[in-house]
């Protein structure tokens, strides 16, 4: 499934239940943050196991929740999410030129 199909499916799911009425930008942003925290929770107490492979299914579910709320917020704000992601990558390419950033984890202000 391509992302656009998944986004349409998420919006149809929301609309069939008449939930858009509850989806204001503030509450959607809060929901994104809460779901991201639940994703982060899958890594809690993992010690040196940075991949936490045993929790992969939970990670996939929480990542999907984050993406769904991002789709809902983009819809509410009238943002084309694919265009926004592309524009952000273009902006980051200017901040992080390959010749300076390749293999380097420093912030662009430190390159």
CATH topology of the largest domain: Helix Hairpins
What characterizes the major β-sheet?
Answer: none
**Global geometry:** globular
Counting H and I runs of at least 4 residues, what is the number of helices? 5
Proportion of residues in helical segments: 55-70%
CATH architectural group of the largest domain: Orthogonal Bundle
Number of strands: 0
Mean pLDDT over the residues: 94
Distance between the termini: 38 Å
* Classification by helices and strands: mainly alpha
At the first level of CATH, the class of the largest domain is: Mainly Alpha
- Low-pLDDT stretches: none
CATH superfamily of the largest domain: MazG-like
Computed Rg: 17 Å
Encode the helix/strand succession as letters.
Answer: HHHHH
Number of domains: 2
> Strand portion, in percent?
under 5%
Question: What tags apply to this protein structure?
Answer:
globular; nucleoside triphosphate diphosphatase activity; mainly alpha; single chain; 5 helices; 2 domains; DCTPP; about 65% helix; Helix Hairpins; dCTP_Pyrophosphatase; about 110 residues
Describe this structure in words.
65% of the residues lie in helices and 0% in strands. The longest helix is centred in the middle third of the chain and has 22 residues, at 56-77. The chain is globular. It is an all-alpha fold and 111 residues long. It is built from 5 helices and no strands. The protein has 2 domains: 3-78, Helix Hairpins, CATH 1.10.287.1080; 80-111, no CATH class.
